[in-house]
Structure formats: structure tokens, C-alpha cells
Amino acid sequence: MQAAQGGDTEAYVLLLKEITPRVRRIVRGQRRFLKIEDIEDLLQDILLSLHAVRATYDPRRPFMPWLMAITRHRLADAARRHIRRAAHELQVENLPVTFSDERSNIDSDGYRDPEALRQAIEDLSPAQRAAIEMLKLREMSLKEAAAARGTTIGALKVSVHRAIATLRKALIKEP
């Protein structure tokens, strides 16, 4: 490690080759329940940490206790991440994709009247109607639609934003 700190890349590569199997065995021994890919992820995390803090190693002290301290800290961090993630996850493997009651599967925010949509689009101003038709119905890019309308992209975005707000008001009935 001392040679690696001095800039010897070959020594650093050799160090990593020598410590990788040892650290892998330690992780596997400490976390027997983990899958191989999770052990490898932890190993990579430890090696990345070693790389990030390699300048803090004091060559007057033994290397392995320093490396084991890094390993212990990364294992503790991984355990905390696992517990935090598990606390917020809910296993739902056997739940149906939809509910059996059809009324539950209908989007309550939406509208189901294509004629009302057609009429609402017709009621828009010509600029807003053109912007909606080009961007949302014909799926043109902003650049293409702006060039076709002879306007700027910013003005086109404003037209679309205002048109969508007007359509929402026209189509979604508040209870």
C-alpha cells in the first residue's frame, strides 16, 4: 500500500489482487445469507471505499487492521441500508393486478367521452388548437411544430400549457 500511495500503479494492482479474495471471504463469512451478486456488490463497495480513502493510510501502521476497519464500516452501512429499505417495502407478489369490482378499475380523474374531447378541442383558440394537434395528436417535436407554425418553441409551449388547462376545465367536472 505504501508503494501504491507513492504512485506505483503496478503495486496498487497487485495489492487489489491480493486483498480481493480475502475481503470476499470475510464478507461471505459475515453475510452468509446474501446471494453471490450481493456479496460482489459489497466487495466492490469496500474496494471503492479503499480507493477513495487510500491517502489516509499511515504506512507506519499495519495495513490489514486499516482495511478491516473499512470493511466493517461498509458492512454496517450495507446492513443499515437493507433495514431501511425493508422497513418501507411491502411484498405483494400474490395480489391481483386489478380489483374484481370493475368500478374500482376506472380512472376517476379521466373522461370517457370522445365527443366532449372533440368539442373541447374545437372550442380552443386557433393557436392553442394547432399547438395541441401538432404536439399531442400528431406527436411532432417542439422544433418541428414551431417551424410549421412559424413561432418560437417557448410560445408553442405556452400555447400547449394554456390549451391543456382549458381542456381540463372543460372536461373534468368538479363534484
| Intertermini distance | 71 Å
Q: How much of the residues is beta strand, in percent?
A: under 5%
The parts where pLDDT drops under 50 for at least 5 residues are none
The dominant shape is elongated
Counting H and I runs of at least 4 residues, what is the number of helices?
A: 8
Q: Using DSSP, what is the number of strands?
A: 0
Q: Could you describe the 3D structure shown?
A:
- The protein is mainly alpha-helical.
- Helix content is 67%, strand content 0%.
- It is built from eight helices and no strands.
- It has helices at residues 2-5, 9-30, 36-52, 63-88, 114-122, 126-137, 142-149, 153-171.
- The protein is elongated.
Chart the SSEs and their pairings:
Layout: H1 2-5, H2 9-30, H3 36-52, H4 63-88, H5 114-122, H6 126-137, H7 142-149, H8 153-171
Helix pairs in contact: 2-3, 3-4, 5-8, 6-8, 7-8
List keywords for this structure.
175 residues; mainly alpha; 8 helices; 67% helix; 0% strand
Short description, anyone?
By secondary structure, the chain is mainly α. Helix content is 67%, strand content 0%.
